[in-house]
From TrEMBL:
Segments forming domain Response regulatory: 3-114
Source organism superkingdom: Bacteria
InterPro entries according to UniProt: CheY-like_superfamily, LytR-like, LytTR_DNA-bd_dom, Sig_transdc_resp-reg_receiver
Protein name in UniProt: DNA-binding LytR/AlgR family response regulator
Gene Ontology MF terms in the entry: DNA binding; phosphorelay response regulator activity
Domain HTH LytTR-type residue range list: 129-227
Pfam family, one: LytTR
Length: 227
């Protein structure tokens, strides 16, 4: 679990972060604050791994606040102004997110923090799968998977470079994939969230491929992609 804290002088921005954090099972939100100074007691008394921090705030700016901390957690800056990005990375920020923040961009930032906090996670959460196809065992990089299609007697994994057929069931394959980045959207389809180009009514577009959205999967999908 990653304990995180959000500081932003805008209530709406805090609501967005709280919503996004709630969708990711490996994040726990320790608190939200509109004034950075009010967060000091919590930062001093409780372990916080990750800080979502606005830069432009009336009483004290995010950069000034961060530099004043004796022991700062990892930080992801959230701001409406791109001109502060160089300063943000000077203080070794994990990421720099420009408002309004889409969920997929938020997810990428959190995954960067996860890698820093859990450097050994690659053993338990590899970035690839080994898939048996015909008489071969193929190494498939997770970040190359576009979507997975369940056929009658087999499953087809569509990647950026090839399509791979395997006798695994779609349910069995889904269990091997990280829940933060893959979601089932139809009885016969699993997609990579960060590969979605657009959603139009009951159809997801990944490149030129149209993928149907099943009624029972629609609500969860819209929660995961809504800003």
């Amino acid at each position: 679990m990653i304990r995180c804290l959000a500081i932003d002088d805008e209530f709406l921005a805090l609501e967005v972060i709280e919503n996004y954090v709630g969708r990711l099972p490996f994040l726990v939100l320790a608190g939200t604050f509109t004034n950075p100074l009010e967060a000091l007691p919590l930062l001093a008394d409780e372990p916080v791994d990750l800080l979502f921090l606005d830069i432009e705030m009336p009483d004290i700016g995010g950069l000034t606040f961060l530099r004043a901390l004796k022991k700062a957690p990892l930080v992801i800056f959230t701001t409406a102004y791109s001109q502060f990005a160089p300063e943000g990375f000077e203080v070794d920020a994990v990421d720099y997110l420009i408002k309004p923040i889409p969920f997929d961009r938020f997810l990428k930032g959190v995954q960067k923090a996860q890698q820093r906090l859990q450097p050994s996670a690659t053993t338990s959460q590899p970035d690839h799968l080994f898939i048996k196809s015909d008489y071969k065992t193929l190494r498939v990089a997770l970040n190359e998977i576009l979507y997975i299609e369940g056929m009658k007697d087999y499953v087809c994994i569509h990647t950026t470079g090839q399509s791979i057929n395997t006798l695994l069931s779609i349910t069995g394959l889904l269990e091997k994939l990280p829940a933060a980045t893959f979601i089932r959207v139809h009885r016969s389809f699993v997609i990579a969230l960060d590969k979605i180009d657009s959603i139009e009514r009951n159809t997801i577009l990944i490149g030129e491929t149209k993928i149907p959205i099943g009624d029972q999967y629609r609500d969860e999908l819209m929660k995961r992609v809504s800003p």
